[in-house]
Amino acid sequence: MALPVVLLLVIEAVLRLCNYGYNTALFVKDPDDQTSWVMNPDASAKFFSNPINATKGNHERFKIQKEPNTFRVFVLGESTTAGYPYMHNGSFHRWLQYRLMHTFPERKFEIINVSLTAVNSYTVLDFGKQVINFKPDAVLVYTGHNEYYGALGIGSTSGISGSRFWVQTVLKLRELKLVQALTRLIYNIQQLGNKPTDTRENLMKRMAATQEIKYGSVEYHKGIDQFRQNMDELCQLYSDKKIPLLISNLVSNEKDLKPFISGAGQLSANTAYQAASNVYGTGNYPLAKTSFKKASDYDLLRFRAPGKLNAIIEQLGRQYPGVYIANTRKIFEEHSPHGILGSETLLEHVHPNIYGYALMSEAFYQAMHSSKIIRPKPENEMSFKLLLKQMPVTRVDSLYGAYQIMMLKVGWPFNTPIPNNFKRGDTEEEKIAGALSVDRITWADAVDQLFKYDLKSNNKTGALKATEAMLLENPDNVNYYIYAGRLNFELGNKPEAFLYFAKAYQLQPSLKNAQNNYLLCLKVDEPEKALTYLALMRSYDIPAAQLDEIEAQINQLINLKQQLKNEPLNSSLNQQIAAYYHRLNADEAASIYQHTSDNNGK
Protein backbone atom coordinates (compact mmCIF):
# COMPACT_ATOMS: atom_id res chain seq x y z
CA MET A 1 0.00 0.00 0.00
CA ALA A 2 2.84 2.40 0.81
CA LEU A 3 4.38 2.28 -2.68
CA PRO A 4 1.23 3.39 -4.59
CA VAL A 5 0.71 6.22 -2.10
CA VAL A 6 4.30 7.37 -2.51
CA LEU A 7 3.93 7.17 -6.29
CA LEU A 8 0.80 9.34 -6.19
CA LEU A 9 2.55 11.87 -3.97
CA VAL A 10 5.50 12.00 -6.38
CA ILE A 11 3.17 12.54 -9.36
CA GLU A 12 1.37 15.31 -7.46
CA ALA A 13 4.69 16.96 -6.60
CA VAL A 14 5.91 16.77 -10.21
CA LEU A 15 2.66 18.27 -11.51
CA ARG A 16 2.96 21.12 -9.01
CA LEU A 17 6.57 21.75 -9.97
CA CYS A 18 5.51 21.88 -13.63
CA ASN A 19 2.74 24.32 -12.68
CA TYR A 20 0.14 22.02 -14.23
CA GLY A 21 -3.55 22.75 -13.94
CA TYR A 22 -5.17 25.66 -12.18
CA ASN A 23 -4.80 27.42 -8.86
CA THR A 24 -7.98 27.04 -6.78
CA ALA A 25 -7.29 29.92 -4.37
CA LEU A 26 -9.88 32.70 -4.43
CA PHE A 27 -7.26 35.46 -4.62
CA VAL A 28 -3.89 35.83 -6.33
CA LYS A 29 -1.42 38.69 -6.45
CA ASP A 30 -2.29 41.28 -9.06
CA PRO A 31 0.20 40.90 -11.95
CA ASP A 32 0.18 44.69 -12.35
CA ASP A 33 0.56 45.47 -8.64
CA GLN A 34 2.33 42.98 -6.41
CA THR A 35 1.11 44.83 -3.30
CA SER A 36 -2.52 43.92 -4.04
CA TRP A 37 -4.78 40.88 -4.29
CA VAL A 38 -7.27 40.29 -7.09
CA MET A 39 -9.81 37.55 -7.68
CA ASN A 40 -8.23 34.49 -9.27
CA PRO A 41 -9.67 34.06 -12.82
CA ASP A 42 -9.60 30.27 -12.23
CA ALA A 43 -11.35 30.42 -8.85
CA SER A 44 -14.54 28.87 -10.28
CA ALA A 45 -12.90 25.98 -12.14
CA LYS A 46 -13.31 23.34 -9.44
CA PHE A 47 -17.08 23.88 -9.28
CA PHE A 48 -17.77 23.09 -12.96
CA SER A 49 -17.57 19.66 -14.61
CA ASN A 50 -17.37 21.26 -18.05
CA PRO A 51 -14.51 23.81 -18.10
CA ILE A 52 -16.20 25.73 -20.92
CA ASN A 53 -19.01 26.69 -18.54
CA ALA A 54 -16.69 27.95 -15.79
CA THR A 55 -17.30 31.66 -15.26
CA LYS A 56 -14.94 34.47 -14.31
CA GLY A 57 -15.42 37.27 -11.83
CA ASN A 58 -14.41 40.88 -11.30
CA HIS A 59 -10.91 42.34 -11.24
CA GLU A 60 -11.21 44.46 -8.10
CA ARG A 61 -7.88 44.80 -6.34
CA PHE A 62 -7.35 45.36 -2.64
CA LYS A 63 -4.20 45.81 -0.58
CA ILE A 64 -2.35 42.79 0.81
CA GLN A 65 -1.48 44.92 3.83
CA LYS A 66 -4.76 46.43 4.92
CA GLU A 67 -4.23 50.15 5.34
CA PRO A 68 -5.35 52.13 8.41
CA ASN A 69 -8.80 53.71 8.24
CA THR A 70 -9.92 51.14 5.63
CA PHE A 71 -13.34 49.52 5.77
CA ARG A 72 -13.20 46.26 3.79
CA VAL A 73 -16.33 44.51 2.49
CA PHE A 74 -16.61 41.31 0.47
CA VAL A 75 -19.68 40.55 -1.64
CA LEU A 76 -20.68 36.92 -2.35
CA GLY A 77 -23.31 35.57 -4.69
CA GLU A 78 -24.36 34.78 -8.23
CA SER A 79 -25.21 36.71 -11.41
CA THR A 80 -27.61 39.14 -9.73
CA THR A 81 -24.99 39.92 -7.11
CA ALA A 82 -22.44 40.48 -9.90
CA GLY A 83 -24.77 43.03 -11.51
CA TYR A 84 -25.90 41.20 -14.65
CA PRO A 85 -26.56 42.42 -17.33
CA TYR A 86 -24.91 45.79 -16.64
CA MET A 87 -21.98 44.63 -14.49
CA HIS A 88 -19.45 47.31 -13.45
CA ASN A 89 -21.32 50.31 -12.00
CA GLY A 90 -24.76 48.83 -12.56
CA SER A 91 -24.04 46.34 -9.79
CA PHE A 92 -25.54 47.08 -6.38
CA HIS A 93 -22.14 47.03 -4.67
CA ARG A 94 -20.95 49.97 -6.78
CA TRP A 95 -24.06 51.96 -5.82
CA LEU A 96 -23.20 51.16 -2.22
CA GLN A 97 -19.54 52.10 -2.73
CA TYR A 98 -20.46 55.48 -4.24
CA ARG A 99 -22.83 56.27 -1.40
CA LEU A 100 -20.41 55.25 1.34
CA MET A 101 -17.61 57.26 -0.27
CA HIS A 102 -19.77 60.39 -0.12
CA THR A 103 -21.21 59.71 3.34
CA PHE A 104 -17.82 58.94 4.90
CA PRO A 105 -15.35 60.99 2.84
CA GLU A 106 -12.63 60.60 5.47
CA ARG A 107 -12.61 56.79 5.19
CA LYS A 108 -11.40 54.39 2.54
CA PHE A 109 -13.85 51.71 1.43
CA GLU A 110 -12.74 48.52 -0.30
CA ILE A 111 -15.80 46.69 -1.61
CA ILE A 112 -14.67 43.54 -3.39
CA ASN A 113 -17.29 41.60 -5.32
CA VAL A 114 -16.37 37.92 -5.82
CA SER A 115 -19.74 36.87 -7.22
CA LEU A 116 -19.96 34.57 -10.23
CA THR A 117 -22.57 33.69 -12.81
CA ALA A 118 -24.06 30.16 -12.65
CA VAL A 119 -22.99 29.28 -9.10
CA ASN A 120 -24.97 28.64 -5.94
CA SER A 121 -24.57 28.25 -2.17
CA TYR A 122 -21.74 25.71 -2.51
CA THR A 123 -19.55 28.37 -4.10
CA VAL A 124 -20.76 31.07 -1.71
CA LEU A 125 -19.84 28.86 1.25
CA ASP A 126 -16.43 28.00 -0.19
CA PHE A 127 -15.60 31.65 -0.97
CA GLY A 128 -17.04 32.72 2.37
CA LYS A 129 -14.59 30.45 4.18
CA GLN A 130 -11.70 31.96 2.24
CA VAL A 131 -12.48 35.68 2.60
CA ILE A 132 -12.36 35.35 6.39
CA ASN A 133 -8.56 35.26 6.04
CA PHE A 134 -8.49 38.69 4.34
CA LYS A 135 -9.65 40.85 7.26
CA PRO A 136 -13.23 41.73 6.27
CA ASP A 137 -15.18 44.31 8.26
CA ALA A 138 -18.41 42.94 6.79
CA VAL A 139 -19.54 40.37 4.22
CA LEU A 140 -22.65 40.78 2.05
CA VAL A 141 -24.50 37.82 0.50
CA TYR A 142 -27.25 37.54 -2.10
CA THR A 143 -27.80 33.97 -3.32
CA GLY A 144 -30.53 31.37 -3.88
CA HIS A 145 -31.87 31.58 -7.43
CA ASN A 146 -29.25 29.15 -8.79
CA GLU A 147 -29.72 26.46 -6.16
CA TYR A 148 -31.00 23.94 -8.70
CA TYR A 149 -29.09 24.80 -11.89
CA GLY A 150 -25.98 26.53 -10.63
CA ALA A 151 -22.72 24.57 -10.47
CA LEU A 152 -23.20 21.47 -8.24
CA GLY A 153 -26.96 22.02 -8.15
CA ILE A 154 -29.30 19.04 -8.07
CA GLY A 155 -30.57 19.76 -11.60
CA SER A 156 -27.31 21.05 -13.07
CA THR A 157 -25.09 19.62 -15.80
CA SER A 158 -22.27 20.25 -13.29
CA GLY A 159 -24.04 18.35 -10.52
CA ILE A 160 -22.39 15.61 -8.46
CA SER A 161 -24.49 12.66 -7.34
CA GLY A 162 -24.34 11.83 -3.68
CA SER A 163 -24.51 13.47 -0.29
CA ARG A 164 -23.42 16.98 0.62
CA PHE A 165 -20.37 15.44 2.33
CA TRP A 166 -19.41 13.72 -0.92
CA VAL A 167 -19.83 16.94 -2.93
CA GLN A 168 -17.54 18.80 -0.53
CA THR A 169 -15.03 15.93 -0.64
CA VAL A 170 -14.94 16.10 -4.44
CA LEU A 171 -14.33 19.85 -4.25
CA LYS A 172 -11.34 19.29 -1.97
CA LEU A 173 -10.00 16.55 -4.27
CA ARG A 174 -10.27 18.88 -7.28
CA GLU A 175 -7.69 21.11 -5.63
CA LEU A 176 -5.11 18.35 -6.25
CA LYS A 177 -3.17 18.58 -9.52
CA LEU A 178 -3.44 14.82 -10.03
CA VAL A 179 -7.22 14.95 -9.79
CA GLN A 180 -7.26 17.91 -12.18
CA ALA A 181 -5.23 15.88 -14.68
CA LEU A 182 -7.54 12.86 -14.37
CA THR A 183 -10.63 15.06 -14.64
CA ARG A 184 -9.25 16.66 -17.78
CA LEU A 185 -8.43 13.24 -19.26
CA ILE A 186 -11.94 11.91 -18.55
CA TYR A 187 -13.50 15.05 -20.01
CA ASN A 188 -11.42 14.74 -23.21
CA ILE A 189 -12.38 11.07 -23.58
CA GLN A 190 -16.06 11.94 -23.12
CA GLN A 191 -15.79 14.53 -25.87
CA LEU A 192 -14.49 11.99 -28.41
CA GLY A 193 -17.17 11.49 -31.01
CA ASN A 194 -19.43 14.08 -29.36
CA LYS A 195 -20.26 17.50 -30.69
CA PRO A 196 -18.29 20.24 -28.92
CA THR A 197 -20.23 22.41 -26.49
CA ASP A 198 -22.17 24.98 -28.47
CA THR A 199 -21.20 28.22 -26.75
CA ARG A 200 -23.75 30.06 -28.87
CA GLU A 201 -26.36 28.59 -26.55
CA ASN A 202 -26.82 30.68 -23.44
CA LEU A 203 -25.42 29.48 -20.15
CA MET A 204 -28.91 28.88 -18.77
CA LYS A 205 -29.48 26.12 -21.32
CA ARG A 206 -25.99 24.65 -20.96
CA MET A 207 -26.35 24.38 -17.18
CA ALA A 208 -29.88 22.92 -16.94
CA ALA A 209 -29.84 19.11 -17.05
CA THR A 210 -33.17 18.35 -15.36
CA GLN A 211 -35.62 20.83 -16.80
CA GLU A 212 -38.60 19.72 -14.76
CA ILE A 213 -38.41 19.61 -10.96
CA LYS A 214 -41.88 19.24 -9.50
CA TYR A 215 -43.03 21.25 -6.51
CA GLY A 216 -42.74 19.08 -3.39
CA SER A 217 -40.69 16.36 -5.12
CA VAL A 218 -37.56 14.73 -3.68
CA GLU A 219 -35.35 16.85 -5.97
CA TYR A 220 -37.25 19.99 -4.96
CA HIS A 221 -36.56 19.35 -1.28
CA LYS A 222 -32.94 18.40 -1.95
CA GLY A 223 -32.35 21.87 -3.39
CA ILE A 224 -33.92 23.51 -0.34
CA ASP A 225 -31.96 21.31 2.08
CA GLN A 226 -28.73 22.01 0.21
CA PHE A 227 -29.31 25.76 0.57
CA ARG A 228 -30.25 25.47 4.24
CA GLN A 229 -27.20 23.40 5.18
CA ASN A 230 -24.69 25.51 3.24
CA MET A 231 -26.03 28.80 4.53
CA ASP A 232 -26.32 27.44 8.06
CA GLU A 233 -22.62 26.50 8.00
CA LEU A 234 -21.70 29.93 6.62
CA CYS A 235 -23.71 31.76 9.29
CA GLN A 236 -22.32 29.60 12.10
CA LEU A 237 -18.78 30.33 10.91
CA TYR A 238 -19.23 34.10 10.74
CA SER A 239 -21.15 34.28 13.99
CA ASP A 240 -18.33 32.41 15.76
CA LYS A 241 -15.72 34.70 14.19
CA LYS A 242 -17.80 37.78 15.13
CA ILE A 243 -17.62 39.13 11.56
CA PRO A 244 -20.85 40.87 10.49
CA LEU A 245 -22.66 38.87 7.80
CA LEU A 246 -25.51 40.53 5.90
CA ILE A 247 -27.74 38.21 3.89
CA SER A 248 -30.45 39.51 1.60
CA ASN A 249 -33.75 37.85 0.98
CA LEU A 250 -34.58 37.21 -2.67
CA VAL A 251 -36.64 38.98 -5.33
CA SER A 252 -37.97 37.69 -8.64
CA ASN A 253 -40.45 38.68 -11.31
CA GLU A 254 -43.84 37.29 -10.31
CA LYS A 255 -46.36 39.50 -12.08
CA ASP A 256 -44.85 39.97 -15.54
CA LEU A 257 -43.24 36.61 -16.27
CA LYS A 258 -45.29 33.58 -17.21
CA PRO A 259 -44.06 30.23 -15.87
CA PHE A 260 -41.33 28.69 -18.04
CA ILE A 261 -42.66 25.11 -17.85
CA SER A 262 -45.98 24.14 -16.32
CA GLY A 263 -47.41 20.84 -15.20
CA ALA A 264 -51.09 19.95 -15.05
CA GLY A 265 -53.63 19.51 -12.29
CA GLN A 266 -53.54 21.18 -8.89
CA LEU A 267 -49.86 22.10 -9.25
CA SER A 268 -50.24 23.74 -12.65
CA ALA A 269 -48.13 26.89 -12.75
CA ASN A 270 -50.03 28.20 -15.78
CA THR A 271 -53.38 27.79 -14.03
CA ALA A 272 -52.10 29.59 -10.93
CA TYR A 273 -50.60 32.38 -13.04
CA GLN A 274 -53.78 32.90 -15.05
CA ALA A 275 -55.85 32.97 -11.87
CA ALA A 276 -53.47 35.55 -10.38
CA SER A 277 -53.71 37.72 -13.50
CA ASN A 278 -57.50 37.55 -13.43
CA VAL A 279 -57.68 38.48 -9.75
CA TYR A 280 -55.17 41.29 -10.30
CA GLY A 281 -57.49 42.69 -12.96
CA THR A 282 -60.35 42.84 -10.47
CA GLY A 283 -58.28 44.84 -7.99
CA ASN A 284 -57.96 42.12 -5.35
CA TYR A 285 -54.22 42.68 -5.00
CA PRO A 286 -53.53 40.72 -1.78
CA LEU A 287 -55.00 37.57 -3.33
CA ALA A 288 -53.24 38.26 -6.63
CA LYS A 289 -49.93 38.57 -4.79
CA THR A 290 -50.37 35.19 -3.11
CA SER A 291 -51.39 33.56 -6.39
CA PHE A 292 -48.44 35.00 -8.34
CA LYS A 293 -46.06 33.62 -5.71
CA LYS A 294 -47.76 30.24 -5.99
CA ALA A 295 -47.34 30.27 -9.79
CA SER A 296 -43.63 30.96 -9.37
CA ASP A 297 -43.24 28.12 -6.87
CA TYR A 298 -45.08 25.70 -9.18
CA ASP A 299 -42.89 26.53 -12.20
CA LEU A 300 -41.13 23.25 -13.09
CA LEU A 301 -38.08 25.01 -14.56
CA ARG A 302 -36.46 26.31 -11.37
CA PHE A 303 -34.62 29.44 -12.39
CA ARG A 304 -36.46 31.31 -9.63
CA ALA A 305 -35.84 30.38 -6.01
CA PRO A 306 -38.70 28.73 -4.11
CA GLY A 307 -40.35 31.00 -1.58
CA LYS A 308 -39.13 28.62 1.11
CA LEU A 309 -35.60 30.00 0.74
CA ASN A 310 -36.69 33.43 1.99
CA ALA A 311 -38.14 31.77 5.09
CA ILE A 312 -34.78 30.05 5.66
CA ILE A 313 -32.93 33.36 5.28
CA GLU A 314 -35.22 35.05 7.81
CA GLN A 315 -34.65 32.17 10.25
CA LEU A 316 -30.86 32.47 9.90
CA GLY A 317 -31.07 36.13 10.88
CA ARG A 318 -33.00 35.24 14.03
CA GLN A 319 -30.79 32.28 14.90
CA TYR A 320 -27.26 33.64 14.66
CA PRO A 321 -25.82 36.69 16.46
CA GLY A 322 -24.02 38.96 14.01
CA VAL A 323 -26.07 37.77 11.03
CA TYR A 324 -28.33 40.52 9.68
CA ILE A 325 -31.04 40.48 7.03
CA ALA A 326 -31.04 42.99 4.17
CA ASN A 327 -34.75 43.18 3.38
CA THR A 328 -34.47 43.68 -0.37
CA ARG A 329 -37.87 42.14 -0.99
CA LYS A 330 -39.62 44.63 1.30
CA ILE A 331 -37.97 47.58 -0.44
CA PHE A 332 -38.85 46.21 -3.89
CA GLU A 333 -42.45 45.73 -2.78
CA GLU A 334 -42.58 49.31 -1.50
CA HIS A 335 -41.52 50.51 -4.96
CA SER A 336 -43.83 48.21 -6.96
CA PRO A 337 -47.50 48.78 -7.80
CA HIS A 338 -49.63 47.16 -5.10
CA GLY A 339 -46.53 45.52 -3.62
CA ILE A 340 -46.31 42.91 -6.38
CA LEU A 341 -42.93 42.43 -8.06
CA GLY A 342 -42.79 42.84 -11.81
CA SER A 343 -41.18 44.66 -14.72
CA GLU A 344 -41.02 47.95 -12.84
CA THR A 345 -37.88 46.70 -11.07
CA LEU A 346 -36.89 43.47 -12.88
CA LEU A 347 -35.73 42.81 -16.44
CA GLU A 348 -36.74 39.16 -16.84
CA HIS A 349 -36.99 36.41 -14.24
CA VAL A 350 -34.55 37.47 -11.51
CA HIS A 351 -32.20 40.26 -12.62
CA PRO A 352 -33.06 43.81 -11.51
CA ASN A 353 -33.03 46.80 -13.83
CA ILE A 354 -30.84 49.77 -12.92
CA TYR A 355 -33.46 51.15 -10.55
CA GLY A 356 -33.76 47.69 -9.00
CA TYR A 357 -30.03 47.52 -8.35
CA ALA A 358 -30.24 50.93 -6.69
CA LEU A 359 -33.02 49.58 -4.44
CA MET A 360 -30.91 46.53 -3.67
CA SER A 361 -28.06 48.79 -2.54
CA GLU A 362 -30.53 50.69 -0.36
CA ALA A 363 -31.54 47.43 1.35
CA PHE A 364 -27.94 46.61 2.23
CA TYR A 365 -27.24 50.21 3.27
CA GLN A 366 -30.23 50.17 5.62
CA ALA A 367 -29.11 46.83 7.06
CA MET A 368 -25.59 48.15 7.66
CA HIS A 369 -27.05 51.24 9.31
CA SER A 370 -29.61 49.50 11.51
CA SER A 371 -27.01 46.95 12.68
CA LYS A 372 -24.63 49.83 13.50
CA ILE A 373 -21.95 48.48 11.18
CA ILE A 374 -21.90 52.03 9.85
CA ARG A 375 -22.87 55.15 11.81
CA PRO A 376 -23.41 58.02 9.37
CA LYS A 377 -23.66 61.59 10.58
CA PRO A 378 -26.96 63.08 9.36
CA GLU A 379 -25.24 66.19 7.99
CA ASN A 380 -22.89 64.05 5.85
CA GLU A 381 -25.22 61.26 4.80
CA MET A 382 -25.98 60.93 1.10
CA SER A 383 -29.71 60.33 0.75
CA PHE A 384 -31.12 57.65 -1.53
CA LYS A 385 -32.75 60.40 -3.60
CA LEU A 386 -29.40 62.12 -4.13
CA LEU A 387 -27.77 58.77 -4.91
CA LEU A 388 -30.30 58.17 -7.70
CA LYS A 389 -29.53 61.61 -9.11
CA GLN A 390 -25.74 61.42 -9.00
CA MET A 391 -24.79 57.75 -9.45
CA PRO A 392 -22.48 57.52 -12.50
CA VAL A 393 -24.34 54.86 -14.46
CA THR A 394 -24.06 56.10 -18.03
CA ARG A 395 -26.56 55.78 -20.86
CA VAL A 396 -24.09 53.37 -22.48
CA ASP A 397 -24.47 51.14 -19.41
CA SER A 398 -28.26 51.27 -19.71
CA LEU A 399 -28.25 50.51 -23.43
CA TYR A 400 -25.71 47.72 -23.05
CA GLY A 401 -27.92 46.07 -20.44
CA ALA A 402 -30.97 46.37 -22.70
CA TYR A 403 -29.09 44.82 -25.63
CA GLN A 404 -27.81 41.97 -23.43
CA ILE A 405 -31.30 41.12 -22.21
CA MET A 406 -32.68 41.32 -25.74
CA MET A 407 -30.09 38.78 -26.90
CA LEU A 408 -30.64 36.58 -23.83
CA LYS A 409 -34.38 36.39 -24.48
CA VAL A 410 -33.86 35.18 -28.03
CA GLY A 411 -32.61 31.88 -26.58
CA TRP A 412 -34.08 29.23 -24.34
CA PRO A 413 -36.16 29.30 -22.17
CA PHE A 414 -37.57 32.69 -23.22
CA ASN A 415 -37.56 32.11 -27.00
CA THR A 416 -38.60 35.71 -27.63
CA PRO A 417 -37.46 37.00 -31.04
CA ILE A 418 -36.05 40.48 -31.37
CA PRO A 419 -38.96 42.67 -32.54
CA ASN A 420 -39.07 43.18 -36.30
CA ASN A 421 -39.30 46.93 -35.84
CA PHE A 422 -36.23 47.11 -33.60
CA LYS A 423 -33.52 49.32 -35.01
CA ARG A 424 -30.53 50.55 -33.12
CA GLY A 425 -30.35 54.32 -33.15
CA ASP A 426 -27.48 56.40 -34.46
CA THR A 427 -26.63 58.40 -31.35
CA GLU A 428 -23.06 58.16 -30.15
CA GLU A 429 -24.18 56.33 -27.00
CA GLU A 430 -26.07 53.74 -29.04
CA LYS A 431 -23.09 53.18 -31.34
CA ILE A 432 -20.76 52.70 -28.37
CA ALA A 433 -23.20 50.39 -26.57
CA GLY A 434 -23.69 48.37 -29.74
CA ALA A 435 -19.95 47.83 -30.14
CA LEU A 436 -19.67 46.89 -26.46
CA SER A 437 -22.52 44.38 -26.65
CA VAL A 438 -20.78 42.37 -29.40
CA ASP A 439 -17.36 42.55 -27.67
CA ARG A 440 -15.73 44.80 -30.24
CA ILE A 441 -14.57 47.08 -27.42
CA THR A 442 -14.10 46.74 -23.67
CA TRP A 443 -16.17 48.56 -21.07
CA ALA A 444 -13.20 50.82 -20.28
CA ASP A 445 -12.87 51.65 -24.00
CA ALA A 446 -16.59 52.45 -24.12
CA VAL A 447 -16.39 54.85 -21.17
CA ASP A 448 -13.27 56.49 -22.62
CA GLN A 449 -15.03 57.05 -25.96
CA LEU A 450 -18.03 58.48 -24.16
CA PHE A 451 -15.82 60.81 -22.11
CA LYS A 452 -14.05 62.14 -25.22
CA TYR A 453 -17.35 62.60 -27.06
CA ASP A 454 -18.86 64.52 -24.13
CA LEU A 455 -15.81 66.77 -23.85
CA LYS A 456 -15.89 67.46 -27.57
CA SER A 457 -19.61 68.28 -27.27
CA ASN A 458 -18.90 70.55 -24.28
CA ASN A 459 -21.10 68.29 -22.17
CA LYS A 460 -19.21 68.61 -18.90
CA THR A 461 -21.96 66.87 -16.93
CA GLY A 462 -21.62 63.82 -19.18
CA ALA A 463 -17.83 63.97 -19.00
CA LEU A 464 -18.06 64.08 -15.20
CA LYS A 465 -20.31 61.02 -15.14
CA ALA A 466 -17.85 59.11 -17.35
CA THR A 467 -14.96 60.19 -15.10
CA GLU A 468 -16.77 59.07 -11.95
CA ALA A 469 -17.61 55.78 -13.68
CA MET A 470 -13.92 55.11 -14.25
CA LEU A 471 -13.15 56.24 -10.71
CA LEU A 472 -15.44 53.57 -9.25
CA GLU A 473 -13.81 50.98 -11.51
CA ASN A 474 -10.32 52.16 -10.48
CA PRO A 475 -10.68 53.57 -6.96
CA ASP A 476 -6.91 53.74 -6.39
CA ASN A 477 -6.17 55.87 -9.47
CA VAL A 478 -5.66 59.39 -8.15
CA ASN A 479 -5.99 60.99 -11.59
CA TYR A 480 -9.73 60.24 -11.77
CA TYR A 481 -10.30 62.04 -8.46
CA ILE A 482 -8.44 65.10 -9.76
CA TYR A 483 -10.41 65.09 -13.04
CA ALA A 484 -13.68 64.67 -11.14
CA GLY A 485 -12.71 67.51 -8.79
CA ARG A 486 -11.90 69.87 -11.65
CA LEU A 487 -15.09 69.08 -13.57
CA ASN A 488 -17.19 69.54 -10.45
CA PHE A 489 -15.51 72.90 -9.81
CA GLU A 490 -16.18 74.02 -13.38
CA LEU A 491 -19.82 72.96 -12.99
CA GLY A 492 -20.14 74.88 -9.73
CA ASN A 493 -20.44 71.78 -7.52
CA LYS A 494 -18.28 73.02 -4.63
CA PRO A 495 -18.91 70.19 -2.10
CA GLU A 496 -18.19 67.53 -4.73
CA ALA A 497 -15.04 69.32 -5.86
CA PHE A 498 -13.84 69.46 -2.26
CA LEU A 499 -14.57 65.77 -1.76
CA TYR A 500 -12.64 64.60 -4.80
CA PHE A 501 -9.60 66.82 -4.30
CA ALA A 502 -9.48 65.75 -0.64
CA LYS A 503 -9.69 62.07 -1.68
CA ALA A 504 -6.86 62.67 -4.16
CA TYR A 505 -4.66 63.93 -1.33
CA GLN A 506 -5.65 60.97 0.88
CA LEU A 507 -4.59 58.56 -1.86
CA GLN A 508 -1.44 60.44 -2.81
CA PRO A 509 -0.28 62.99 -0.20
CA SER A 510 1.99 64.92 -2.56
CA LEU A 511 2.91 68.60 -2.82
CA LYS A 512 0.95 68.90 -6.06
CA ASN A 513 -2.24 67.54 -4.48
CA ALA A 514 -1.80 69.73 -1.40
CA GLN A 515 -1.43 72.76 -3.70
CA ASN A 516 -4.54 71.73 -5.66
CA ASN A 517 -6.58 71.60 -2.46
CA TYR A 518 -5.11 74.83 -1.10
CA LEU A 519 -5.94 76.71 -4.31
CA LEU A 520 -9.43 75.20 -4.55
CA CYS A 521 -10.21 76.37 -1.03
CA LEU A 522 -9.24 79.91 -1.97
CA LYS A 523 -11.15 79.87 -5.26
CA VAL A 524 -14.36 78.86 -3.51
CA ASP A 525 -13.86 81.47 -0.78
CA GLU A 526 -12.84 79.08 2.03
CA PRO A 527 -9.57 80.63 3.30
CA GLU A 528 -9.75 78.86 6.67
CA LYS A 529 -9.66 75.47 4.92
CA ALA A 530 -6.81 76.70 2.71
CA LEU A 531 -4.66 77.12 5.83
CA THR A 532 -4.97 73.37 6.51
CA TYR A 533 -3.37 72.50 3.18
CA LEU A 534 -0.86 75.32 3.47
CA ALA A 535 0.34 73.69 6.70
CA LEU A 536 0.74 70.37 4.85
CA MET A 537 2.82 72.13 2.19
CA ARG A 538 5.40 73.01 4.87
CA SER A 539 6.58 69.39 4.88
CA TYR A 540 7.78 69.80 1.30
CA ASP A 541 10.74 71.67 -0.18
CA ILE A 542 9.26 75.18 -0.22
CA PRO A 543 11.03 78.12 1.47
CA ALA A 544 9.43 78.79 4.84
CA ALA A 545 9.52 82.56 4.25
CA GLN A 546 7.40 82.16 1.12
CA LEU A 547 4.78 80.12 2.99
CA ASP A 548 4.88 82.56 5.93
CA GLU A 549 4.07 85.42 3.58
CA ILE A 550 1.15 83.50 2.04
CA GLU A 551 -0.14 82.56 5.49
CA ALA A 552 -0.03 86.18 6.60
CA GLN A 553 -2.04 87.23 3.55
CA ILE A 554 -4.64 84.53 4.19
CA ASN A 555 -4.96 85.52 7.84
CA GLN A 556 -5.42 89.15 6.80
CA LEU A 557 -8.04 87.96 4.32
CA ILE A 558 -9.88 86.10 7.09
CA ASN A 559 -9.83 89.21 9.29
CA LEU A 560 -11.24 91.36 6.48
CA LYS A 561 -14.02 88.85 5.87
CA GLN A 562 -14.84 88.95 9.58
CA GLN A 563 -15.12 92.75 9.43
CA LEU A 564 -17.29 92.49 6.33
CA LYS A 565 -19.90 90.54 8.30
CA ASN A 566 -20.57 93.71 10.28
CA GLU A 567 -20.34 96.00 7.23
CA PRO A 568 -21.58 93.99 4.22
CA LEU A 569 -22.03 97.11 2.06
CA ASN A 570 -18.52 98.46 2.69
CA SER A 571 -17.05 98.80 -0.82
CA SER A 572 -13.54 99.34 0.50
CA LEU A 573 -13.56 96.05 2.42
CA ASN A 574 -14.87 94.20 -0.64
CA GLN A 575 -12.14 95.71 -2.80
CA GLN A 576 -9.42 94.78 -0.28
CA ILE A 577 -10.66 91.18 -0.11
CA ALA A 578 -10.77 91.02 -3.92
CA ALA A 579 -7.21 92.35 -4.08
CA TYR A 580 -5.93 89.69 -1.68
CA TYR A 581 -7.63 86.95 -3.67
CA HIS A 582 -6.08 88.29 -6.90
CA ARG A 583 -2.62 88.19 -5.30
CA LEU A 584 -3.26 84.60 -4.20
CA ASN A 585 -4.29 83.57 -7.77
CA ALA A 586 -7.89 82.95 -6.74
CA ASP A 587 -9.55 85.14 -9.37
CA GLU A 588 -12.87 83.28 -9.10
CA ALA A 589 -13.31 84.37 -5.47
CA ALA A 590 -11.92 87.84 -6.23
CA SER A 591 -14.59 88.42 -8.87
CA ILE A 592 -17.34 87.81 -6.30
CA TYR A 593 -16.12 90.60 -4.02
CA GLN A 594 -15.19 92.92 -6.89
CA HIS A 595 -18.71 92.55 -8.28
CA THR A 596 -20.19 93.32 -4.85
CA SER A 597 -17.94 96.37 -4.51
CA ASP A 598 -18.91 97.67 -7.95
CA ASN A 599 -22.62 97.26 -7.19
CA ASN A 600 -22.28 98.98 -3.83
CA GLY A 601 -20.44 101.88 -5.44
CA LYS A 602 -23.28 102.61 -7.85
Automatic annotation (TrEMBL):
One MF term in the entry's GO annotations: hydrolase activity, acting on ester bonds
InterPro entries associated with the record: SGNH_hydro_sf, TPR-like_helical_dom_sf, TPR_rpt
Keyword terms of this UniProt record: TPR repeat
TPR repeat feature ranges: 478-511
Name of the protein this chain belongs to: SGNH hydrolase-type esterase domain-containing protein
Native organism: Mucilaginibacter galii
